[in-house]
Design brief:
By secondary structure, the chain is of the alpha/beta class. It has eleven helices and 28 strands. It has helices spanning 6-19, 150-156, 161-172, 219-229, 269-288, 315-332, 350-358, 361-365, 380-383, 415-431, 475-484, and strands at residues 42-44, 47-49, 69-72, 75-78, 83-84, 87-88, 105-108, 121-123, 130-140, 143-147, 181-186, 234-239, 247-251, 262-265, 293-296, 338-344, 367-372, 390-392, 435-440, 442-444, 462-465, 470-473, 492-497, 501-505, 511-517, 522-528, 531-537, 541-547.
């Protein structure tokens, strides 16, 4: 339990934000086309935002406070003044409820994942292997998440009700990974049960046949099961393909030719207008289901056209859609939904699309967040000049068909993938992203989607053995949880040196350090929060330390 000292915290943050003005903070510009803002505001895209008081952008662009919190001095505060592990509690509460049992040390290694019986021993002598400097902070952290899909719910539905509930809790509950985000596909992804969009009536520019009835069978039940565990999940969405009648060939060659797979987006006014309304109607339809979509992306990986639902976009067409149709449509509908410039995997014209949209004053003004994944890691640093949140939108799935070893029969879901996952999460956070999303949260043990030509068994966080009707937790899940359970929304990424580590300073003042040891088991010393703590670090494993 922490009772914040608002005046102290606000003073520190105000000072740091004002000092940041020289490198793009308060009072600076959003980028080459951004506005000049008053000294107490920050440029977020094309708008000046009072990040010291705005609960939708508290301490940084697009960073919302949780339910029950207000923004004071750029810090999300509880009205009661009482904060317990990131959640507001009544002022007469004397415990942290279910999160009070969160340990201060967790370790994981092959054959010994998620051990909570380790000890942190204070020491005064010797050098630290890892040092955390919580006064040197970088971006504000928004959270971790993953993608919903039809296949995932179909496999979860094979489990007993108890095991299915366990799976959802492992992902979203306070005593699980505590994911903050959820990605929802608009129509079929490559892990839908089969190909579909929300309006396949040819030429239906009025969208009279638009319907999310299909989604109520598998996708929405999955989402609502997660909402039952965590009510304030932040949802965002993207299509893998628009309705097929909005595209033109040539479609992707392969074993099965399908208008869902590949092709390019038409650029005539009637089609782009209809597609903008298609996305708006999706947001509105989901809102009627009690699912608020915070952000929408026009297209998943717009430079890739493979043998599953995909669609190619030119920079000019993408810019035209956002600036002339989608932005105005969202505004006219009275939606607070942000437009994501993404999701980009770095191939083809992806960098050119980013430059085209953000270089266009009108289109750029509608962008609220950037969505990068896979090959876009090296573009994060340059994109920070746009002064927008940058989300890593899809974790690599491993077991690559173009690399060795490759298993064509089943997804490995092994320790090697967990180690790869660690490196990816670490590097994207160091690059400056503010959120990080896993790809498929749940699959079967095989991991194959609906690609009709390339067989690619992909890893997931949780798997279901469909023969034994058994839930499995993969090593990669624990890597994500080593971060996500302990790092609260609104945390600051803190400087860490001397080892393979990432650190954060939570809004309640607690310091989180996540470490990886690629060698043999050994004793390690970590310096953080004004003390030195010693622990038994497992070999080829991870540790999370929390100092309150």
């Amino acid at each position: 339990m922490r009772e914040p000292k608002p005046s102290f915290v606000q003073g520190i943050l105000l000072g740091s934000l004002l000092l940041a003005a020289g490198c793009g903070g308060i009072g600076d510009r959003a980028g080459p086309n951004g506005p000049s803002c008053p000294v107490d505001q920050m440029a977020c895209g094309q708008e000046c935002v009072a990040v010291l008081t705005d609960p939708t952008s508290c301490g940084g662009c697009g960073i919302p406070c949780s339910t029950g919190q207000i923004c004071q001095g750029g810090v999300c505060q509880c009205v009661s003044g009482m904060l317990c592990n990131g959640a507001c509690v009544p002022p007469d509460n004397t415990t942290c409820g279910t999160t009070a049992s969160i340990p201060t040390l967790v370790t994981s290694a092959p054959g010994a994942y998620w051990k909570t019986d380790g000890q942190l021993t204070p020491v005064t002598n010797g050098n630290a292997d890892v040092t955390v400097n919580d006064t040197a902070t970088a971006q504000t952290w928004e959270g971790f998440g993953g993608s919903f899909n039809e296949m995932g719910w179909s496999y979860l539905s094979m489990l007993s009700e108890s095991d299915r509930d366990t799976a959802i809790r492992l992902l979203y509950a306070d005593d699980g990974a505590r994911f903050a985000f959820g990605r929802i596909p608009i129509g079929a992804s490559d892990y839908a049960m089969d190909r579909y969009t929300l309006d396949e009536t040819a030429g239906d520019t009025s969208l009279a046949s638009f319907s999310i009835t299909r989604d109520t069978q598998q996708l929405i039940p999955f989402v609502k099961a997660a909402q039952a565990v965590k009510a304030n999940i932040r949802f965002w969405s993207s299509p893998w393909t628009p309705p097929t009648w909005m595209k033109e060939g040539q479609f992707s060659p392969g074993k099965v030719l399908s208008p869902f797979d590949g092709g390019t987006m038409k650029n005539d006014d009637a089609t782009l207008q209809a597609f903008a309304q298609y996305l708006v109607k999706f947001v509105q339809a989901y809102a009627q289901q009690g699912i608020a979509i915070e952000a929408i992306s026009p297209q998943n990986e717009p430079s890739y056209t493979g043998n599953y639902p995909t669609c190619g976009w030119s920079p000019a067409t993408y810019t035209k859609l956002v600036g002339q149709y989608l932005g105005p449509a969202v505004t006219s509908a009275g939606l607070s939904t942000k437009i994501m410039l993404g999701t980009f995997n770095g191939g083809g014209s992806d960098p050119a699309i980013v430059s085209s949209v953000m270089g266009n004053v009108t289109a750029g003004s509608y962008i609220g967040v950037l969505g990068f994944q896979w090959g876009m890691l090296d573009k994060v640093g340059g994109a920070r000049a746009y002064r927008l949140p940058i989300w890593q939108t899809e974790h690599k799935c491993g077991n690559y068909p173009w690399a060795k070893p490759f298993d064509a029969s089943t997804a490995p879901n092994d320790q090697a993938y967990a180690v790869e996952s660690w490196g990816l999460i670490r590097d994207w956070i160091r690059a400056g992203v503010t959120a990080y999303s896993a790809w498929n949260m749940v699959l079967d043990t095989v991991g194959v989607g609906i690609d009709t030509t390339r067989v690619w068994p992909q890893n997931a966080l949780l798997t279901v053995d469909t023969s034994a009707r058994k839930l499995n937790i993969t090593p990669a899940y624990y890597v994500f949880r080593h971060f996500s359970q302990f790092v609260a929304t609104g945390a600051k990424v803190a400087a860490a040196s001397g080892g393979d580590s990432v650190a954060f300073k939570n809004p309640d003042g607690s310091i989180v350090a996540v470490l990886y040891n690629s060698g043999a088991a050994r004793t390690m010393t970590v310096a953080l929060a004004g003390k030195k703590l010693q622990l038994a670090m497992p070999g080829n494993g991870w540790a999370t330390l929390v100092s309150r």
